[in-house]
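Late entry, evening session. Most of the bench is empty. Finally got around to the prediction I had been postponing all week. Sequence below, unchanged from the version circulated by S.P.
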Amino acid sequence: MTGLPALDAHLSYTAPEHRDGCTTPGWEVDYRMATAFRPSSYSGHSCPLGTEDRTACGHGDEYEALTVRIYCPKCGAATKLEAELPGLPMVYDTTRLGMGVKPRRVGQLWVYQGPPPQFGILRDPPGAPQWHLVARRNASRLAPEDIAGVVEPATGPRGGAAFTVSYDLAELSPQAPGERGHPMFAKHSRLDRQFFPSVTAAARWLDQHAAAPAGGSRTA
């Protein structure tokens, strides 16, 4: 299951759609967090953790509600998302999320930054990204068929710092109806004792050996 944080940072996201004829490329986005209370039918708090701290569990009468509004002032298209928060969200930047950073080209492939191994505390630097997703095209949203592989750090055969690649993305069948399948890489270079001195060198190897999708052609 190696490299899954990088896949999770870039795949399966979607965007609202503008109305026909709208030429505005982006959206206005704002959000609100507020304390809310459950309807009376759910009132009454019973929890093994006790009632002294109602924030210690996720099913008390009081909770933090999040409302996100995504809208276009020109065409009027709008999406409203509402969710219950287990706690106050942190303020991230694109480095922490592992997305939104411009990819760099290596041969016919594009290297996307993945998330760091651990999030920093509040605004502390989160550290260097551990995973790099390698794709067949430069796009704001990627699909599974775009993924050539993933690069991650490893310990080389002599104990030094190195990188390995995983490739041949497949999807395990969902365990229950309605669930999403779980992605996985079927091949790993470390199993063949293949190590690389840098992310760029690893991406070049993918460009030569795993750039073309199964049954398809290479895409620049």
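Two things to note before I forget:
The helical segments are 4-10, 94-97, 199-209.
The chain has three helices and nine strands.
Will write this up properly tomorrow.
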